[in-house]
Backbone:
């Protein structure tokens, strides 16, 4: 995943979610991990897609124009 500053934002809830999944009805670790991963992977994929868009704005073929246009359109 391109650097976007989202590592801790993903890691903290992912760690909490893993702990909750493993602490839930004990005995079936595989089912707990499967449920955890069912939420983990889509969330990570969305964040990776957003990071890819920002990376393209910063260093893609239209850089820096796309990045400037993004900031110019931002409310501020």
Residues:
């Amino acid at each position: 995943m391109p650097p976007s500053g989202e590592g801790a934002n993903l890691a903290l809830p992912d760690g909490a979610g893993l702990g909750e999944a493993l602490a839930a009805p004990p005995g079936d670790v595989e089912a707990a991990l499967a449920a955890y991963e069912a939420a983990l992977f889509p969330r990570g994929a969305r964040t990776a897609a957003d990071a890819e868009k920002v990376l393209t704005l910063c260093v893609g073929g239209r850089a820096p124009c796309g990045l400037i246009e993004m900031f110019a359109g931002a409310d501020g």
